[in-house]
Amino acid sequence: MENMIRLDTQQTLQSLTRELLKHNFGIAGEKATISDVRSGLPGVERNESCADFFGDRFQLSVPYAGQRLNWDIVLDPSSPDNPPDFDLNDDAFTNNYITVDCLEQAVPSLFNWQADDRNALKNVVSELLQLYKKYQVEELKELPNYTNYKNAMESGLVTAEDAEVLIESTGYTTFLFRLPLDMSDFEVQDGDYAIHVSLDFSRPTARMSKPKLQMTPALLDVMNTKQFYQKHENTCSESSDLADYLRRVLYKAATSILHHKVKPVTKRKRFVFEFLNFRGTSVLEFDAIEFLHASFLLDDSKGFVCILKLTLADNFPITPPVYALRSVYNADPVDSFRVPFQMCWDNRSAVKKALQFIENEIEQLRNKPQIVI
């Protein structure tokens, strides 16, 4: 009878541990690992090479902010209905931050321990991890780089759920962010399209070190990574603060998605917007839904004024842009023309070349005999 009870206890604790090790933790979505597995019951031999080795106490390594937190866990081998004991190996956290009331609110799975729920241990660890993250943010408020974190949270680029902070004794503060990309402009399947950004800030200068980037598998499948890293090379030095850096990373990632994955309307929108970057103060109108056309009021150095109309085909950039110039001084028919254009050019280069070509067309139009209206 005693052996049957012991076997039942072993199976209960094994089930709790197995479910814990199946779960993905943190932003990185990595699994926890255990080591130094032991048993508090007499007569149970240590055999870690066996997959079913029974251990009621072990060290748990949990992924967090690109590092690993090592927590010691002790389960009750004689009565699994008793909640587990934890040694979180962080005296400041356990002695100065955690209170009974705090635990009761933040870690309800520990206070309402149900050993027959195989997710019970996993739930406790998840809740403790969230409490630890909250503690780290509170500690960060006393450091110079809290402003960086606060600005990033207020930017709308990242949420608190997608951010992890770790203040290390080495004098560095590590931030790990998950930046989800808006894929509505691309023809892709549903998936996790995100970039994980890890940054270290030194104390007390709050200077940002070179970031480490990791794309999710779904994003890697649709991104020109070589192009992205070329664009990203100077992003850190170009950025004014953390929020600005994250904004630049997202923009450069979105503009590095493989060209054939971009929706046709998005390709046209980007081209029109690039024109607006150069001639936005001269725009008369543009198609803000399908981005098929736009008109601009242009003048040259001699005060000659004309209207430029840009037209894009549905299959742009396979079909190059079409341009037309009309003088405001007469009612002559408008002649359409094309400018040098190659699909391999980025939008900025294509628009710059187009405007240079159009300057010559304006000069020819100015020198053309005018029939005054």
Give a written overview of the molecule.
This protein is α+β, with helices and mostly antiparallel strands and 373 residues long. It has helices spanning 2-22, 91-97, 100-106, 108-111, 120-140, 146-154, 217-222, 225-232, 235-238, 242-254, 264-279, 347-367, and strands at residues 24-25, 30-31, 33-38, 57-64, 67-74, 85-87, 163-167, 172-180, 194-202, 212-215, 283-286, 293-299, 305-311, 322-327, 335-337. The strands form four sheets. The protein has a five-stranded antiparallel β-sheet with strand order 11-12-13-14-15, with helices on one face. Strands 3-4-5-6 form a four-stranded antiparallel β-sheet, with no helix packed on it. It has a four-stranded antiparallel β-sheet with strand order 7-8-9-10. The protein is elongated, with a radius of gyration of 31 Å.
